Amino acid sequence: MSRRYEWEREVAVEAVREAARLCRAVREEISPEILAKKDKSPVTVADFGSQALVARTLAEAFPDDPIIAEEDSAELRLPGNAPLLDQVLRHVRNIRAEGDSTDSIDAGQVCAWIDRGGTSAYRDRFWTLDPIDGTKGFLRGEQYAVALALIVEGQVAVAALACPGLDAVFYAVRDEGAFGVPVESGDDDAAGPPVHVRVSGRDDPAAVRFCESVESGHSAHGDAASVAGRLGMTAPPLRMDSQAKYAVVARGEADIYLRLPTRADYREKIWDHAAGALIVAEAGGTVTDVHGKPLEFHHGRELIANRGVIVTNGRLHDRVLGAIRELRIGEESPV
Ligand code: AMP
Ligand code: MG
Question: Which one, of 6, 76, 29, lies nearest residue 48 by Cα?
């Protein structure tokens, strides 16, 4: 079988793996005092460092591809943020030190890599990146992800999702299945072959498990409880940050991921869903918005044509959408 996007897939997996190494290194330096002060600077350092590394890798491999990413370097370039920029530079150099000479990496270079993520207009082929998805989970020492996807003609073609809290990198190429490899090793021979990931076959509501955001500001917990009640789902929700939720549905540990709108005017960001959505679809699951409409990735930075996101193992999808319709969730008009 001819394999499409093999080079893109390899580059994407290595890119998120390297970025995840940086995130872990930053995480290891977080002291209890920093957490107690509610100091968010480690997230900022990991966010920018992760984006710099991924953007650099993509620039080397695919110099003509634009990147739509969450961050730009404007904030980092402010004189008051020089200490943060120093930290980003230190971490990027540490990661890169293993591979090549780091002398040439300076702060200007790091900012220039970050700013490769500044595209916002739609193009026929582009990458979208969330350098740290689930920043609160990162700080809590729980789930977070580095999420990268290649979008070609409006469809997600390649996805790579590093989930350090699940100890895995998940990846998928459209029509070729979804796989997982350990997050640590770059050497697949040593780590064993990639594991095929598949959604669960569960369809008895009494046995299924749904997941949702930890943050009630990101997904309406009350509405999710109403959907669960209507369907006879009795297990408590599995709450976790980031696209790790897509990953646990993809590998069958959970059966449903509900992201129900909290505000009429919020539009989901493409980098929060592109990678996870392809991985679940390739694992045999179904991903739509709350109205059952496929996610549309060709409108720029936001999923402007969609409301909320519903992810299931496929078997449960129609029932979940039916409950949402009956409860009239997501029907309020934008203010
Ligand atoms: P999660 O970890 O699943 O709670 O999602 C984290 C993501 O939620 C962040 O990357 C934000 O882009 C996104 N976000 C921020 N505000 C909202 C909101 N009001 N509704 C849905 N998602 C949001
Ligand atoms: Mg995010």
Answer: 76
CA dihedral 198, 330, 156, 67 (to 10 degrees): -130
Q: Looking at the predicted structure, is the pLDDT value of residue 335 above 90?
A: no
Quick one: which ligand is closest to 144's CA? 1
CB-count burial class (<10 Å; 0-12, 13-18, 19+) for 153: exposed
What is the C-alpha to C-alpha distance for residues 221 and 78, in angstroms, rounded to an integer? 38
The Cα–Cα gap between 184 and 14 comes to 11
CA distance 303 to 265: 12
pLDDT tens digits, residue range 232-264?
A: 999 999 999 999 999 999 999 999 999 999 999
Contact of 162 with 183, CB cutoff 8 Å? yes
Active-site entry in 44, 135, 288, 312 = 135
> What does the block give as tokens for 329?
């969730």
Half-sphere exposure of residue 143: CA atoms within 13 angstroms, side-chain side: 22
Q: pLDDT tens digits, residue range 35-66?
A: 888 888 899 999 999 999 999 999 999 999 99
Count CA atoms closer than 13 A to 245's CA, side-chain side.
30
Task: Tell me how far CA of residue 155 lies from CA of 60, 151, 175, in angstroms.
Answer: 23, 5, 12
Q: Which two tokens stand for residue 61?
A: 């491999």
**Integer Cα distance of 54 and 14 in angstroms:** 9
Angle CA(157)–CA(163)–CA(165) in degrees, nearest 5? 165
- Ion ligand 2 residue ranges (Cβ < 5 Å): 130, 133, 272
* Mutate-to-test residue for ligand 1 from 129, 144, 266, 272, highest number of ligand atoms within 8 A of CB: 272
Q: pTM value?
A: 0.95
Q: Which two tokens stand for residue 225?
A: 């409880």
- CB distance 209 to 239 below 8 Å: no
Position 16, amino acid: V
